[in-house]
Write a structure and sequence with these properties.
Layout lengths: L1 H12 L18 E5 L10 E7 L3 E7 L6 E6 L2 E9 L2 E13 L2 E8 L2 E10 L5 E8 L9 E9 L1
Antiparallel strand pairs: 1-2, 1-10, 2-3, 3-4, 4-5, 5-6, 6-7, 7-8, 8-9, 9-10
């Protein structure tokens, strides 16, 4: 299903908010609203809003075009596994996001306790672009197994 696939791609991108913890020199790095570039429904871009939360972490709020569901993740970015919520309810997916420095992070993605992928993300030096490299070991939620790259631009 295209909507589910979009959500899973968005979920992989969640890793990107390990960027700029409040303890870093740039505490607001990554905070704001982002739009995914590339193939998507015309006139309905996938957006992500990033807010500070969870001590040094981030709250990621995804608005998926064409469906009335919001996907949310709250992670302290310390590698602990946290649930992915769809419409405020657990989806069965979890993410363990680890910040490696002010501009890089890694994520381990699981569905119902089973590993299905990893992602690595990087925030550009100017803070306007995020690049996420996904590697899905299994087909989950419409995402094909394999590698893909996503680009997000700050609105």
């Amino acid at each position: 299903m295209t909507d589910t696939r979009t959500m899973r791609c968005a979920a992989a991108v969640i890793a990107l908010w390990a960027l700029g913890s409040p303890s870093s020199a740039n505490a607001q790095a990554g905070v704001g609203t982002w739009e995914r570039q590339g193939p998507q429904r015309p006139g309905q871009p996938l957006t992500m809003t990033v807010e500070p939360c969870c001590r040094a972490g981030r709250r990621l709020i995804y608005r998926i075009p064409g469906i009335d569901v919001v996907m949310t993740v709250e992670s302290p970015f310390d590698g602990s596994e946290v649930p992915v919520l769809l419409g405020g309810k657990p989806s069965g997916e979890t993410m363990a996001i680890t910040q490696t420095d002010d501009h890089h992070w890694t994520t381990i993605l699981k569905m119902n306790g089973q590993l299905f992928g990893t992602s690595k993300g990087a925030l550009s030096a100017d803070g306007r672009t995020i690049t996420v490299e996904n590697d899905f070991a299994a087909t989950v939620g419409g995402n094909a197994a394999g590698k893909s790259t996503e680009t997000w631009v700050k609105k």
